[in-house]
Write a structure and sequence with these properties.
Layout (H helix, E strand, L loop, with lengths): L10 H14 L8 E7 L5 E10 L2 E8 L11 H16 L3 E6 H6 L1 H12 L5 E2 L22 H15 L4 E6 L5 H12 L3 E5 L2 H14 L5 E4 L10 E5 H6 L11 E4 L8 H9 L4 E6 L11 H4 L2 E5 L1 H6 L5 E12 L12 H8 L2 H15 L4 E4 L3 H13 L4 E4 L5 H13 L4 E4 L14 E4 L6 H9 L10 E10 L9 H4 L4 E3 L3 E3 L4 H10 L17 E3 L5 H6 L2 E2 H7 L4 H10 L6 E6 L2 E6 L1 H11 L9 H10 L7 H12 L5 E3 H17 L10 H4 L4 H10 L1 H7 L3 E4 L4 E4 L1 H4 L4 H22 L2
Parallel strand pairs: 3-4, 6-11, 6-12, 7-9, 7-10, 8-9, 10-11, 13-18, 14-16, 14-17, 15-16, 17-18
Antiparallel strand pairs: 1-2, 2-3, 2-5, 13-20, 19-21, 22-24, 23-24, 25-27, 26-27
Helix pairs in contact: 1-4, 5-6, 6-7, 13-14, 24-25, 24-30, 25-27
Length: 755
């Protein structure tokens, strides 16, 4: 199993991403976060195989071998350690799901069905943005603290809100810009008893230290599993502990409440806390206010006191300037397979783990960087080790580090890098430790990645401010790729179409524009005078991003669900060229994804006379379909009667119950000497099996409802489910009406075929 689960991207990871893409669409797979870092309940660093956010939920997915579930096949320590990891994720409020490699290999349809069931067939995923630089490790002195201009502005805005009788607000600032400090200063200014809540121990501890350092003269305590300082003037607690112990507090115990990571505030635990307490003021803190479930966070927090994104943070001097030099290689990546999230690791290794490219990386450092502290991001542990050895051969103090190393050994090497004893760190997964070294001056992006999250994480390792550090220099190693499998680069990330060697990508306001004028004159900024770049070097960068293009489009899968026509018709029209996709993405030689613009869907719907289906009208169209039920056979009303009779509160019915209902219905007619069905029907012929009955149901009456996304079948679980946008809106009277319509339609049908 170890070889299948490399952090750099493994066969198991690739397989899971493929199944995820097949289930939800390739564009949705971009929301999967591989090897997500977190802390267990004992504050040990951990990694979840995959994490994604859907609606208000954070979902962890673990890929195991069978032995991981069997205490007889693994050591006792390993088994209990895995249990602790899983329990800690659940304690954080995450949904946790596990699949084995063998399941994915042998039962892919089962895994896809379970994904739909567990995550929702219409899951609304969002990007996880908690990957930017943090304030971790900064010493604060409340007496000497000098706030930045934007922090002062935020405090001024918050005071003005309170003077205007506002009681709740949102502080939206990029991680690493000091929003926790701003919140502490505001709470200190108000002076009342304060509650700070967060969803991880790390955030609770950071807040605790900030309050202790800044707000002198008051008691600061914690409210977590093991420690409950009820009487402290400032209480820093986990949201879970506070929510579970509300009866220990009076509703007016706190004058000021701070909600960290406020984009989670729609979750039940947060809502429970917010509904209970009646403070004078509530402040939400977030770096990610957007939500994929269409829940506007401002519906809770009403007003934004201050906003500061990463680009603005650099412009204002809260994070360091960033420059970029592009180094072109002769590596051809056009044939490297990908699955919308990452490259096939085996294909990638073959292409980039080669002597000539590794040598280019080392030569670039020797020619451009000299003695500046540099982190080289590599594709794999093997890749990192190879490059580190080449550096050492040139007399450069370098070391490869990875999560697979002993903690003590890894920490020793990181400490040497921080002190300057080591000049180069070659890393494949170091960023996942949440590590950053403000003294880092240079990043080598030698690991091609299709993940915006991963690239931004890497960038964040060097963006912290440090004395004497004028800017972060990023070297993008640019391999030959098609527009569809092009990896992220600085220019693609920030949508910059023109490149000047060493030029500013992120900088103070107007800096980039001023430098471009300088480059146009054949000159270069003083800041890059030590870098051997030609001032006249210019490159037009292709920043086409198919993930972004596709994100605003409709996949062929979704197209079928949006119109009242059978899937076979759509597939045939695409083959015949009657429906032309706006975007066709070749994932590999034999695999393509097709996307349509919303206006294209509307145009074709009008051209062919199709009705458009959405969540708002699906129930109405369902009722119309019932009323106007076309019947070549009696199957549709029999299916609807079975569903209404056996469905649970979620609208789910076991397929075996539907089969039993069908058999009972037609055998009852046979016993009574009534017409059973048309002669070619299996029910008229008799002698049919349960499997034949099920196959008949799913291929005839059910298919029409499925194509209109009104019902779906979870094959391996044996469940038929009515779409929630239909089921939840059906009243008891409407269900009774459907039954009466079904009886009427059956009566009319049999009168017709008996003639």
């Amino acid at each position: 199993m170890a070889e299948l689960k490399s952090i750099s991207g493994s066969g198991a990871e690739d397989l899971f991403i493929d199944l995820f893409a097949d289930t939800f669409g390739a564009e949705k797979a971009g929301y999967l976060y591989s090897q997500y870092p977190f802390f267990d309940i004992y504050q040990n660093a951990r990694f979840a195989d995959f994490v994604c956010e859907s609606g208000a939920k954070r979902i962890a997915i673990e890929i195991d071998d069978e032995a991981s579930h069997n205490p007889r096949l693994v050591s006792k320590d390993k088994f209990t350690d895995d249990l602790l990891k899983q329990n800690s994720m659940i304690h954080l409020g995450w949904d946790v799901y596990r699949w084995t490699v063998r399941q994915m290999q042998k039962q892919p349809d089962t895994v896809k069905d379970e994904l739909r069931l567990f995550l929702g067939s219409e899951s609304r995923f969002k990007e996880i943005d908690d990957y930017l630089p943090t304030q971790r490790g900064q010493a604060l002195d409340g007496g000497k603290l000098e706030l930045r201009e934007y922090q002062q502005e935020a405090l001024k805005n918050l005071q003005a809100m309170r003077e205007n009788k506002e009681t709740i607000a949102l502080l939206y600032q990029a991680t690493g810009t000091g929003k926790t400090v701003t919140a502490v200063m505001d709470a200190k200014k108000v002076g009342g008893r304060t509650l700070f809540v967060a969803h991880t121990m790390e955030l609770v501890n950071q807040a605790y230290n900030a309050f202790k350092s800044i707000w002198n003269g008051v008691s600061v305590g914690k409210f977590v599993d093991s420690v409950k300082d009820y009487d402290s003037h400032v209480l820093c607690g986990s949201i879970q502990s506070v929510a579970l112990n509300l009866d220990s507090f009076k509703d007016d115990d706190f004058d000021y409440i701070i909600i960290d990571e406020a984009h989670h505030a729609t979750a039940d635990t947060y809502q429970k806390v917010l509904a209970y307490f009646k403070p004078k003021f509530i402040l939400g803190l977030t770096a990610t206010p957007e939500r994929a479930d269409d829940t506007n966070i401002l519906e809770i927090f009403k007003n934004t006191a201050h906003k500061l994104d990463i680009q603005t943070a650099v412009e204002m001097g809260a994070l360091t300037n960033v420059r970029c030099i592009r180094i072109h290689t002769n590596i051809d990546m056009t044939k490297v397979r990908f699955n919308s999230v990452q490259y096939n690791i085996r294909d990638l290794d073959v292409k980039i783990c080669v002597t000539e490219r590794n040598k280019l990386i080392v030569d670039t450092w020797l020619n451009y960087v000299k003695d500046k502290r540099t982190v080289v991001f590599c594709a794999s542990v093997k890749h990192a080790e190879q490059i580190a050895e080449l550096f050492k051969a040139q007399g450069v103090s370098a070391m490869a580090v990875s999560g697979g190393m002993k903690t003590s050994e890894r920490n020793e090497q990181i400490a040497k890098f921080a002190s300057g004893e080591l000049k180069v760190l070659c890393a494949c997964d170091l960023l996942n430790e949440g590590w950053d070294c403000p003294q880092t001056e240079v990043l080598f992006m030698a690991r091609p990645t299709m993940s915006k999250v991963l690239y931004t994480q890497q960038l964040g390792r060097g963006m912290r401010l440090s004395e004497g550090k004028e800017f972060l220099m990023v070297f993008d190693f640019v391999d030959n790729a098609s527009q569809y499998n092009a990896p992220y680069s600085m220019h693609r990330l920030f949508k910059l179409k023109d490149y000047h060697a060493g030029g500013t990508v992120l900088g103070k306001k107007g800096q980039r524009e001023a430098e471009i004028e300088l480059y146009l004159k054949g000159e270069r900024p003083d800041a890059v005078i030590d870098y051997p770049v030609d001032a006249t070097d210019y490159e037009a960068v292709d920043i086409f991003n198919w993930q972004e293009e596709a994100a605003g489009m409709i996949s062929q899968m979704e197209f079928i669900r949006r119109v009242d026509v059978q899937s076979e018709t759509i597939e045939r029209y695409v083959r015949e060229g009657k429906l032309v996709p706006d975007l066709v993405i070749p994932m590999s030689e034999h695999r393509v994804f097709k996307y349509f613009k919303e206006e294209t869907l509307e145009r074709y719907a009008q051209e062919f006379g199709w009705k458009l289906i959405d969540d708002n009208n699906r129930k109405t169209l369902f009722m119309e379909m019932v009323e106007q039920m076309d019947m070549s056979y009696s199957y549709k009303p029999v299916l609807l009667k079975a569903v209404l009779q056996y469905a649970d509160k979620q609208g789910r019915v076991k397929i075996e119950d539907i089969v039993s209902h069908f058999k009972a219905y037609y055998e009852d007619r046979r016993a009574k000497g009534l017409k059973v069905e048309k002669q070619n029907s299996i029910f008229a012929k008799g002698g049919y099996t349960d499997k034949e009955t099920e196959r008949n149901i799913l291929s005839n009456p059910f298919k029409r409802f499925e194509d209109m996304n009104m019902m779906r079948h979870t094959k391996t679980l044996g469940i038929v489910e009515v779409d929630s946008t239909v089921w939840k809106k059906l009243s008891d009277d409407e269900k009774a009406h459907i039954l009466s319509v079904c009886d009427k339609k059956l009566e009319e049908y049999y009168k017709r075929i008996e003639k």
